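User: I'm curious whether this sequence folds into something compact or stays loose and floppy. Could you predict its structure so I can see for myself?
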Amino acid sequence: MENYKSVTTPMSVIEKLSKTLGDSLSVAEGSKYRSIVGALQYLTLTRPDIAFSVNKVCQFLHSPTSSHWTAVKRILRYLKHTSTVGLSIRRSGSTLVSAFSDVDWAGCADDRRSTGGFAVFFGSNLISWSSKKQVTVSRSNTKSKYKSLANATAEII
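Assistant: Here's the prediction. I'll summarize afterward.
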């Protein structure tokens, strides 16, 4: 991976991951895929910028394909490019708690479920974040956004 070109985003905006996209990985490659994705999950504890991308590649742990492996390698290339990025907590005069949420309505090509996420700030400091696939299919963009907003609100409370 050292010779690979770094990238500025952790995931391609053009390609949508799917169960059927790409050739199945061998048993050894699948094991390596799961191991690296597990390490990436751990890394999301301090790198909220990769939470959505890691959430997406986690959905294919059961039977990863070559396109999923390519997506994991892209996340690694992004991490190489942003190796100096991390969380920092700074003194802030504000005690305002604010949250932002968003969702990719029907973003999963396989089951049309949405992935929602949120970020919670205390003053100017990011204190909590999440990216999670919604349990049910939303029939409208508004409904999926309300679900994501409810998750953010529950985190604040």
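Summary: The chain is about 35% helix and 15% strand. The longest strand covers residues 125-133.
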